[in-house]
């Protein structure tokens, strides 16, 4: 597999992971009436992902 193809696959996996995390956080926020930061702490979202996800809220 070419390097470009691997990079594309990795970007798509990252996007899917972030999208799923966003949905989990949003659902937890609604169900528990908590902030996005609290939800990310409960779900143990990595710092790198928190930076990306924080921009969505």
Describe the structure using short key phrases.
mainly alpha; 57 residues
From the N-terminal CA to the C-terminal CA, the straight-line distance is: 37 Å
Helix segment tally: 3
Q: What is the radius of gyration computed over CA atoms, rounded to a whole number of angstroms?
A: 14 Å
Shape by Cα distribution: elongated
Order of helices and strands: HHH
**From the helix content, strand content and strand pairing, which structural class follows?**
mainly alpha
Described by strand count, sense and barrel closure, the largest sheet is: none
Query: What's the count of strands?
Result: 0
Please mark out the parts with pLDDT under 50 across 5 or more consecutive residues, or reply none: none
How would you summarize the topology of this molecule?
Elements: H1 3-32, H2 36-42, H3 47-54
């Amino acid at each position: 597999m070419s390097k470009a193809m691997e990079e594309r696959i990795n970007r798509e996996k990252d996007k899917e992971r972030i999208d799923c995390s966003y949905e989990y956080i949003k659902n937890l926020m609604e169900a528990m009436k908590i902030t996005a930061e609290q939800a990310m702490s409960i779900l143990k979202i990595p710092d790198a992902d928190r930076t990306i996800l924080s921009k969505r809220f």
